[in-house]
From TrEMBL:
Membrane topology annotation: Multi-pass membrane protein
Protein name: Chloride anion exchanger
Pfam family, one: STAS
Positions of the STAS domain: 515-710
Example of a GO biological process term: transmembrane transport
InterPro entries, sorted: SLC26A/SulP_dom, SLC26A/SulP_fam, STAS_dom, STAS_dom_sf
Lineage, opening ranks: Eukaryota, Metazoa, Chordata, Craniata, Vertebrata
Length: 726
């Protein structure tokens, strides 16, 4: 019964053990579905289920009929035009990261948008190339088709190399799309939870460093080969600085000017975004101006700058991926598939929360998988979403993926009609535009200090991810980072927080005794809490902490007591001890015998419960013992284990826990377990945890129930009246 008294409450109820509570309150029998029940349910077929699957597989059928044409169409058109212009420039710029001709970047910002329009669930992200993903694809391209590629011992010309590189990029994109599609069909959308925010932040920051280094050769116009190996970034920098004197000054000056303008205007866009109706399209303005200057001043001939050149018009016929290439890039494709999905899902989740709608992780995998399959078939490269491009689509008023279709139309116009206008554009300008989009990623360095103050484990994950991705490469670095992150989880669970509790304020509240002054500890009672699951990797740590908390090793005490009983029996047999009303009296000067002689190679007997039935007197281990006989003192009589935070206990840990509890019980210490979750006792019973020494009656609902039971038991033991009442 609960009686509220002001801001206090008074509870009157019996002291409940688990058994007593279950006797008074009968539990409902609930049927728990088996694995096969879930399988049958998943493959069940009905008209309603077919309709539900169709609506989930084609989200466009849900949101398009509900489209508010009059209210939204103008916003989507404006947003689509702005996003399309940015997408064109980013497609050309990110193609340099993939090491393919710039025109193929336009395919990467066209086809995925069309597929996502039908299958995607986010209304605001702009699908297309992402610098990290482009760099990962470029790493595979450089590894399989290096700059010094030969055929029959004869160096290949650049056009042949570019053709092979396009094939490699398309093949790895196709395969990553297949992996994403399979993960989506198999409902593996949860895989993104294994990439923490700290890991993603450290990884994208490292990728930004790789992008920065990879674009230096275009900004300086130096012939730098690709190094897709561990420490490749070091070799790239070494190659750049070894030929720094050959820098094309015109490209360098152009790059610095473009970078300065882009950074300044982007900063103005951020600072005055509340006052500006739309962000200033600085990438478009810079590109138009740079192309005009390059064309009319003839930069290519005068200063020997590298230009985009003629863009291919129209589309290539779809082609099947190269099976020989697919065999060599399986690992890379898995990394690209996971990273692409993780980045896109993270951005989509931000906008879904902001605009109050739901996204489906599994459907997103299917949408991006199909998008990459189609894009790879048409010789594009891997797509995800770029943060800056999605920001443009959302901030300029985009309401749905209609804005994405409008942006695709803008890209289509460039592919089919006006691509030739970009031919005189310097590659160094595209490189600068690519670097201009890295500001947000590079600013993530500030997170190191924040994470160090908030969570040092997350900070270590960030730094380890960054260093591994920078030094080992993005593919190996990602695998290393995920392994390291999981290792930190294992370490944290392997070294759980174990504390000794005490009663605070003479209430039913129990907290760490080191944190409070107004505490009460029942005499002879230790309350021990473990704040993590207990399993094979941390059970020994749990045991050591418990022994440290109570102040003695129960197995050592048990063995000492059994050794003492052996000595007492031997002395009684020789007449060296005499039983008196006051206890045992030594009748002779007893010579100390070695433990080895007494053990007589029967150490296993020392681990058994003490047996005094054959002695004429019960030994009081807390009283004085005969000379030459010593045992460790035990100053507690009860231990309460708080298992409220123990979510599971595996079989290996169960065996060790059972052995440990028996050691305490055999030296006359009562063990109680409080707060165990639902089903804990059932699992212990199934695993034959209980026996004559360890019984279900040791389990109590709460710590306070166990403490009250111990106090009542102590009072009963010390008071004949209470014994009579009981």
């Amino acid at each position: 019964m609960v009686e509220p008294v002001g801001n206090h409450y008074v509870v009157a109820r019996p002291v409940y053990s688990e058994n007593l509570f279950n006797e008074e309150h009968k539990k409902l029998h609930r049927y728990h579905k088996t694995f096969w029940d879930h399988v049958k349910l998943y493959f069940r077929c009905s008209p309603q289920r077919v309709k539900k699957i169709a609506l989930r597989l084609f989200p466009i059928t849900s949101w398009l009929p509900a489209y508010h044409f009059r209210e939204w169409i103008l916003s989507d058109i404006v947003s689509g035009i702005n996003t399309g212009l940015v997408a064109i420039l980013q497609g050309l710029a990110f193609a340099l990261l993939v090491n393919v001709p710039p025109s193929y970047g336009l395919y990467a910002v066209f086809f995925p948008v069309l597929v996502y329009f039908i299958f995607g669930t986010s209304r605001h992200i702009s699908v297309g190339p992402f610098p990290v993903l482009s760099l990962m694809v470029g790493g595979v391209v450089v590894r399989l088709v290096p700059d010094n590629m030969t055929e029959n011992g004869i160096p290949m010309n650049m056009s042949a190399i570019n053709e092979m590189r396009v094939t490699v990029a398309a093949s790895v994109t196709f395969l990553s799309g297949v992996f994403q599609l399979l993960l989506g069909i198999l409902q593996f959308g949860f895989i993104v939870i294994y990439l923490s925010q700290s890991l993603i932040s450290g990884f994208t920051t490292a990728a930004a460093i790789h992008v920065l280094v990879s674009q230096l050769k275009f900004m300086l116009q130096l012939p730098v080969p690709g190094f897709n190996t561990p420490l490749g970034i070091i070799y790239t920098l070494e190659s750049i600085f070894s030929q720094i004197t050959n820098t094309n000054i015109a490209d360098l000056v152009t790059s610095l000017v473009v970078l300065l303008i882009v950074f300044v205007v982007k900063e103005m866009n951020d600072r005055f975004k509340e006052k500006l109706p739309t962000p200033i399209p600085i990438e478009l303005l810079v590109t138009v101006l740079a192309a005009l200057l390059s064309y009319f001043l003839n930069f290519e001939e005068k200063f020997n700058v590298a230009v985009v050149g003629k863009l291919e018009e129209g589309f290539h016929a779809p082609v099947a991926p190269d099976a020989h290439i697919l065999q060599k890039c399986i690992g890379d494709s898995i990394s690209i598939a996971i990273v692409g999905f993780a980045v896109a899902f993270s951005v989509a989740k931000v906008y879904s929360i902001k605009h109050d709608y739901t996204i489906d992780g599994n459907q997103e995998l299917i949408a991006f998988g199909l998008g990459n399959i189609v894009c790879g078939s048409f010789k594009g490269f891997a797509s995800s979403t770029a943060l800056s491009r999605s920001g443009v689509q959302e901030s300029t008023g985009g309401k749905t993926q209609i804005a994405g279709i409008i942006s695709a139309v803008i890209v289509l116009i460039v592919i089919l009609a006006i691509g030739f206008l970009l031919a005189p554009l310097q590659k160094s300008v595209l490189a600068s535009l690519a670097l201009g989009n890295l500001k947000g990623m590079l600013m993530q360095f500030k997170e190191i200090g924040i994470l160090w103050r908030k969570d040092k484990y997350d900070c270590v994950i960030w730094v380890a991810t960054f260093l591994s991705a920078v030094l080992l490469g993005l593919d190996i670095g990602l695998a290393t980072a995920v392994a390291f992150q999981l290792l930190t989880v294992v370490i944290r669970s392997q070294i759980p927080s174990c504390t000794v509790l005490a009663n605070v304020g003479r209430s039913n509240i129990y907290r760490n005794k080191k944190d409070y002054t107004d505490i009460y500890e029942p005499e002879g009672v230790k309350i021990f809490r473990c704040s993590s699951p207990i399993f094979f990797a941390n059970i020994e740590f749990f045991r050591e902490k418990l022994i440290t908390a109570v102040g003695f090793n129960p197995l050592r005490v048990l063995r000492k007591r059994n050794k003492a009983l052996r000595k007492i029996r031997k002395m009684l047999k020789k007449g060296e001890l005499q039983v008196t009303p006051k206890g045992l009296i030594c009748m002779a000067n007893h010579m100390h015998e070695s433990d080895e002689e007494l053990d007589n190679n029967r150490i296993e007997e020392l681990d058994q419960p003490t047996n005094m039935t054959d002695l004429p007197i019960q030994i009081n281990w807390g009283a004085d013992l005969p000379p030459g006989i010593t045992v460790p003192q035990v100053n507690i009589h009860s231990i309460i284990l708080d298992f409220s935070s123990v979510s599971f206990l595996d079989f290996s840990a169960m065996r060790v826990l059972q052995k440990t509890l028996k050691e305490f019980i055999r030296i006359d210490i009562d063990i109680y377990i409080a707060g165990a979750h639902e089903g804990f006792l059932d699992k212990l019973e199934r695993c034959a945890f209980f026996d004559e020494e360890i019984k279900p009656s040791m389990f109590f609902l709460t710590i306070h129930d166990a403490v009250l039971h111990i106090l009542l038991k102590t009072d009963i033991a010390s008071s004949p009246k209470l014994k009579l009442t009981e």
